[in-house]
Amino acid sequence: MIRSFIFSDGKVVGQDLELEALRLVRADKGLILWVDLDNPTEAEIKSILEGVFQFHPLAIEDCVKPSSLPKVEDYDDYLFLVTHAVDFTRTDKFATTELDFFVGREFAVTFHTAPLRSVAALADRYTKGIGAGPRGGDRIVHSLLDQLVDNYNPVLDELRSELEDIEEHVLAKESGQQKFVSELLHVRGDFTRMRTIVRPQRDVIERLARGDNKLIRASLLPYYRDLRDKLVRLDEVAGSYHERLMMAFDIYLNKAAFEANEGIKFLTALTAVTLPAVLVGGWYGMNFDHMPELRSPHGYLYAAAFTLVSTVVMAVYLKKKRWF
Questions:
Q1: CA-CA-CA-CA torsion sign (160, 162, 164, 166)
Q2: What angle do CA 266, 269, 274 make, to 5 degrees?
Q3: Which of 190, 206, 3, 11 is nearest to 88 (CA)?
Q4: For residue range 73-117, what is the model confidence (pLDDT) as tens digits?
Q5: Exposed (0-12), middle (13-18) or buried (19+): which is 221, by Cβ within 10 Å?
Q6: Edge-to-edge, what's the strand order for the sheet holding 95-103?
Q7: Residues 47-69, mean pLDDT to the nearest whole number
Q8: At what angle do helices 177-209 and 152-171 cross, to 10 degrees?
Q9: C-alpha to C-alpha distance for 117 and 68, rounded to whole angstroms
C-alpha cells in the first residue's frame, strides 16, 4: 500500500496522489513530499523507488532485503537509513520491525513490511491537521524517529516486569525449575536483542546529530541530539536490567548447587547413621566356625545393644555437626 502527503508552508495540501501526480510533485521544489510504502508489492516498489525517485540500486536492494542492524548511508543528495521498531505482540512476545528511510531536502520515503504505530500516528496527525506540518524531509524523519524511540519505553517496562517476576521466582522456596530456566533464557534473549538494536541505532542518530550532513538542517540538530540522549538512556537502562538478570541467574545457580549439596549431605548422614547396624549385621553374617558370641545366651542382646548405642552416638554427633 502506498500513502503520500504533500505539504506547502507547513500545511497539508494533498494526499494519496496517483503515480503521475507524485512525479509532478517531486519535480516541484516548493513542495515537501512524504511517501510511505506499507508492505508494498514489487510493482509498487519499482514504480516509487525507481520510477519516481530514481534511488541508487544498492540502496533499493538494502531497503528490500531485511537488515539485522541499523545503519546510515550517504548518497550525496539523500540519506538512506535502516532503523528498527520494537513491540510486544500476542503471537511473538518480542517483535522487531524494520523501518527504512530515504530522506532528502524536500522529501522523505519510508518503507516497512508490517504496520507500525509510529507511522500510523504521524499519518493520522497530518490527516487531522494537528500541529504544524514539516518544512523539510529531515523534520518528517525526526517525527517518526521520535515516536519510534518513545515506543521503546513500554517494551522496556514489559521486560522489567518479566525481570521482576524472575527475581521473585529465584527467591521463592519452591518453583518449576525446567519452566523457569526456559523463561530466563527467553528473557535473556529479549534483552540481548533489545541492546543489539538500541546501541547501533544510537550510533546512527549520533551521525545525524553531529551536523556533518548537509541534509539535516542546523535548526533540527538539537532535536536529533535529544533523540541520541534518549537512546543512550535506553541503552544504559537495558544494560542495568541485563546485569540484574545475570545476577538473578547466578543466584539461581548458587541456590541449585546449595540444594544439591543439602541433599548429598542428608544422604551421607543417613549412610553414617546406619553404618553401625551394617557393620554388626555384616560381622554376624559371616560363616565362622568359632564365634563365641553366638553360643552365649545374651549374644543377640549384646549385639542389639551395641548396634543401638553406636547408632544413637553417631546420630548425636552428626546432629551437632548440623548435617541434618
A1: negative
A2: 125
A3: 190
A4: 888 888 999 988 876 654 556 678 889 999 988 899 999 988 888
A5: middle
A6: 11-15, 2-8, 32-38, 107-112, 95-103, 79-87, 71-74
A7: 87
A8: 150
A9: 20
